[in-house]
Amino acid sequence: MKQISLQLPPFAPDYSGACSALFELGGMIVIHDACGCTGNYTGFDEPRWYDGESQVYCSALRQMDAIMGDDEKLIGRVLRAAEDMHPKFIALMGSPVPTVIGTDFAGIAEEIQQRSGIPAFGFLTTGLRLYDVGASEAFLALVKRFARPGASEPKAKTVNLLGLTPLDFYVGGTVKALHSALEQQGWNILASIAMDTDLEKIRDSVDAQINLVVSQSGLAMAEYYKDMYNIPYVVGLPVGSEAADELFSMLEQSAEDGQNRILSSGHGQGNYQTVILGERVICNSIRRCLEVDCGLEGVAAVGIFSPEPRLMGSDDLSATCEDEIETLLNESGCTRIIGDPLFKRLLANDNKAEFFEFPIPAVSSKLYWNQCVPIIGDQIFTWLPKMGRR
């Protein structure tokens, strides 16, 4: 019952995250459903759908198909479409109905690959998990399949960006600002996975000296690069001025000693004055900026999607449903809230906390995804002027 929402829409599901991770890479994406899930992704979870080109299809699953389990019908449709579209790969996505009937997506993908000669993936997305899980699984599958095998000598001052989708970073200037900030520090970006990149860059991504994990969905991919290619990673975003310099210093250190690092923060010890709600890495990075650049204490970074213990300190918080978010906002005693505009619906009438709107596409979808809030470098102070700077 905790998962029931009365005020908030459902957050973006796992198949939307997986589709978003693959959107720009020239593959054919097939969502196995009766049109509802495909429409949910293209209409509400993918801002690039209106301006870009991608091969996203619905399998048009019907009641009798579900009852009879006719996988050959799905395979035939995919093969016929592939003959016309010539995709670089084929990706099958699950939805709730195939989950209930136990569709073997891995087996179907293997059959399609053998008969077409085109690389194929079968993702066990269900629509019952959140977007960050689906994106993480898709990113990991990408690098396992397309990254060039075998270790190589890393190229100096090169970096991959791991975990980019519009569900966290919009389609506006955030990614360009991130590229610019790193390039100003002398870093050359090999692969920006998976916005503003392609499969060839992913193949050569193994030459990077270091990986920068910019969202939780990039962490599993970073672990794979470390295990298979011994490429270390840093987790965080260059938000603010002094906090950004701290992150850049971590990149230099990790490139030198090969150790993984995660952007750290102070300890609120339960006395929270400022609460930031959203994706874990983004919230942690904004928190560090408020601590280092603004001198604020008692800043809580609250992850509202899938919990990830590896990115959480002992006193970090999670609020993964409407009830938990509402309780936190109204009972924590905080005086500042940074979060999606829809969270204002959850504030009690007597809650006098100052609210800073930070739209999250995975929460409020198209309602606010054109209202991109800049956070990279000093840009954050254009919308958080009242926080002050030391």
UniProtKB/TrEMBL annotation:
InterPro entries for this protein: Nase/OxRdtase_comp1, Ni-siroh_cyclase_CfbD
Q: Where is the signal peptide?
A: none
GO MF annotation terms? oxidoreductase activity
The segment(s) forming the Nitrogenase/oxidoreductase component domain are 15-256
Q: What SUPFAM superfamilies would the database entry show?
A: Helical backbone' metal receptor (SSF53807)
Q: Which domain of life is it from?
A: Bacteria
Any Pfam family matching the protein: Oxidored_nitro
Task: List the PANTHER family hit by this protein, alphabetically.
Answer: NI-SIROHYDROCHLORIN A,C-DIAMIDE REDUCTIVE CYCLASE COMPLEX, COMPONENT CFBD (PTHR42846)
Name of this chain's protein: Oxidoreductase
**Could you tell me which species this protein originates from?**
Bianquea renquensis
